[in-house]
Specification:
single chain, alpha/beta, five-stranded mixed beta sheet, 14 helices, 17 strands, 16% strand, oxidoreductase, 4Fe-4S
Amino acid sequence: MRRRYNAPMSAQPLPCRDDAAPAFGPAARRSTRQVRVGQVAVGGDAPVVVQSMTNTDTADVAATTRQVAELWRAGSELVRVTVNNPESAAAVPRIVEKLAMMGIEVPIIGDFHYNGHQLLAHEPACAEALAKYRINPGNVGFGKKRDTQFAQLIEFAIRYGKPVRIGANWGSLDQSLAAQLMDENAQRAAPWDAGRVLREALIRSALDSAERAVEIGLARERIILSAKVSGVQELVAVYRDMAARSDFALHLGLTEAGIGSKGIVASAAALAVLMQEGIGDTIRISLTPEPGASRTQEVVVAQELLQTMGLRAFTPMVTACPGCGRTTSEFFQELAKVVQEHVRAKMPEWKITHPGAENLTLAVMGCVVNGPGESRHANIGISLPGTGEAPAAPVFIDGEKAMTLRGDGIAREFLGIIDGYVARKFGSDAHAD
């Protein structure tokens, strides 16, 4: 399964061509082979794709179908499910069928470890229903069985015309490869530090496995690679180097990112650096959900990361001030929340009936200091009265003051203004012009 790569590990950013380094904005996307996962394109000239993973027992068809639908409605373009036993493998075709009956045709990815070759052999309907297989070269098999079991999974992918993600992981690294590289490193005149050797082992595990898959007969256009770690700087170093050494599409994600703000900040810090350099074709934010919280938070974070970087637009984003002593009223905070929830709830409908509405910009400001200026910069903005200011809220539309709202119905009226603007600017009549 292993192929020797001699390119040295680099801890420095990749050099940018003159045409790939604009004065403003991210570098040009790294050129990769495009992979079709169901109807979704990953890599090449396709936009960066958002994906997520269920945490239900896949054998529970109803619960898994419900969560996949929830993730899809939140904006996940690919959804991965665990396939770890015969019951979960048998459930996959039923899940896909139920989703189709609901009008949801999101590609479902099967996550395999240890026994994937057996599950696909015993459940051919699962092999057919899945849109992609995820294979971990660190635990696809052990000892003499590793190469055979890896080859069997690749042969299933070839037989059923499916792409694969070869996903190496820091927590399940191929120990024999790591030991081999440690031995080789000891013979160097200037040995690398242990961390660099382990990063190299992670990269080699993914790259060598991909080349082995190609030798077996899988097209390069059916391979996506990942090499996940849980440290921000390690992830950046690994993906920079892997991007320099192949043209496979890359799946980005900080594994075991954590819970709450820690997981969000760590994922954003790592992935933003890489995407700013043009690296990455599909992303997942691996958050540990807060107790009782929806799994969809990881989808929202992924979308907001891409949108705030200017790489894609998913839903109107709301600019809102943080508040200060001039804004002792909480009304502007409440309105900002109501507006954000309103447009996010509307987007599944607007995406179909009012394409382009996702690019709408909104501002909800809390006082006169920056309120009017920020409101003029947005398509629609409102400047609410701060402490001691007159009880009036000017509304700006496309840079011009359009009206002033007063009284108890400001929130309702402002939402109506937004809906009316979307209908005018992004409705069928607008596109007919």
